[in-house]
Amino acid sequence: MDLVADHIAKIAPSITLQITSQAKKLIDQGEDVCSFGAGEPDLDTPEFIKEAAIQALQTGKTKYTASAGILPLREAIHEKLLLENNVDVPASQISINCGAKHSCYQAILACCNPGDEVIIPAPYWTSYPDMVKLVGAEPYFVETKAENGWKMTADEFADSISGRTRMLILNSPNNPTGAVYTREELEAIAEVAVSEDVIVLSDEIYEKLIYNDRKHVSIASLGKDIANLTITINGFSKLYAMTGWRLGYTAAPKAIADAIDTIQSHTTSNVTSFAQYGALAAIKGDQSFVQDMVDEYDMRRQYMLSRLKAIKNIRVIEPEGAFYFLVDTTPIGLSSTNLAEKLLSRYKVATVPGIAFGHDKSIRFSYATSLDVIKKGLDRFEDFCKSH
Ligand code: PMP
Ligand code: GLU
Q1: Protein residue with least CA distance to atom 4, ligand 2
Q2: Whose CA is nearest to atom 9 of ligand 2?
Q3: 106 and 229 share a domain?
Q4: Measured distance CA(363)–CA(197) in Å, rounded
Q5: Is the CB of 243 under 6 A from ligand 1?
Q6: The CATH number of the domain where 10 resides is what?
Q7: Distance in angstroms (rounded) separating the CA atoms of residues 41 and 366
Q8: pLDDT digits (tens, 9 = 90+) for 101-144
Q9: Residue 97: which H helix or E strand, with range?
Q10: Quick one: which ligand is closest to 205's CA?
Q11: How many angstroms does the Cα of residue 236 sit away from the middle of ligand 2?
Q12: Is the shortest distance between the CB of 178 and ligand 1 below 6 Å?
């Protein structure tokens, strides 16, 4: 007898998380591993955020909260979305979830019926297709090209729509490519979504990790019609270095927001009460450290770009957002899994194989790691490339 349900057989564990724990295990065993694995800031959560959570604990904020989250936090997110993103969603339609990963899953669960198709531009963040499969819907991939900046055009989107299409998952700035969609590109995509009635899940978790004076644009800000179809998702993991806290949120049209709240009320109840007070401090507090953090990532990004460009038999394009490089390793000729395994076992460099993102001729480097590790790791990667 199968002990596990059929729908679980269709999905696999997260490769990004697997690589991270593999690398951590080797480091714990005393190995000198340079880890470019999971996209997890190497910086610690700012002190004032920790203090707010400690204070919440000490003042008895230890009970269940409303399932969608504490009202002051939802109101603060409403204000943030209005002022920074020009997205007007009332606090009553904002839900605080256990990380943006959980937000994405609940949004898909709230909207998709078994058999529906969900369009996902590839390369994509590893968890989207599995989340879609978990609810019985089907991912439909649109392959993007490096020469187009790894971005899906509105025409490609329109061509991929079928009678079963229910949702588009957009992720800008993008994990793993670093692509950032412009206002014009998003306007063209929004026009197609509205005319074809396709729901847009807009994952904006890297919105502030953006370089070269690029501006982040929220697709829900581009008019009432597209706002009525869009679920805007964001979180605290990347920007505030709060990955372990598990805090993300959805801002959605009323019917979808109500469905998300219902799901959450029966599954997690609410996000950890005192963590929500940490998030409140984060969003309300002095944001000046954000620019320092972006400057630090930008410095690492530029260093990596110049080093990677100098290495023969790989190809790389400049990422404009997030904290990843998707390095095209086609000339080396190995599958991404094989390549990443060799790099880790022989050269002690942890990367994520591109297969995790739907691109088997590449590996992903996260530069959310110190410059010292980056320098040493790239020396080793260069040696690897010379010998292949
Ligand atoms: N979306 C994207 C594109 C991501 O890379 C991640 C990775 N952390 C998430 C969502 C989820 O983040 P979290 O659950 O830590 O908020
Ligand atoms: N999103 C990060 C990554 O892509 C963290 C790991 C995960 O949540 O999958 O590496």
Answers
A1: 39
A2: 16
A3: yes
A4: 35
A5: yes
A6: 3.90.1150.10
A7: 9
A8: 999 999 999 999 999 999 999 999 999 999 999 999 999 999 99
A9: strand 94-97
A10: 1
A11: 13
A12: no
